[in-house]
Amino acid sequence: MAAEAGRLGELQTVQNPSLGGYLIWQFGLGFQAEDSQQSSFLLAFLVLPLLLHKPTLDLIVSTRKSSGLALFAAKLGEQHENLLAVHSRALALRQLSLQSIGIAANRGLVSVDYDGGHFRSNTPERKSPALPERIRSMSPAAR
User: Fold this and answer.
1) Distance in angstroms (rounded) separating the CA atoms of residues 88 and 90
2) Residue 22 and residue 100: Cα distance in Å, rounded?
């Protein structure tokens, strides 16, 4: 029984601020890849509601990166309730998103421009960690 108490459940394993910080950092790297622009701070609050929901993650993965955000939004909007569900998930995950941004900033993965309302993902000084199989697809989806 003591071994069971020390284990994290599936929900806690996936929905934790460290993973969230990593995914927000990856999103920022992808956002900056085209023209080096900083991302709006508000967009960081959409990353986890999109990536921690399996059907939405699958939709993101099935959209080519070159198609861009507009095609993804059009695909998501084909079923109006999907767009509304993102809003509900964003509200439910806002504390986790904020904690995730805090961890990413604390670890130097992102820099936050509080006055301008933007954040920038920093280039890592060391190699990215090896990711477990169950979350490996999230990294490219975040970008």
Assistant:
1) 5
2) 8
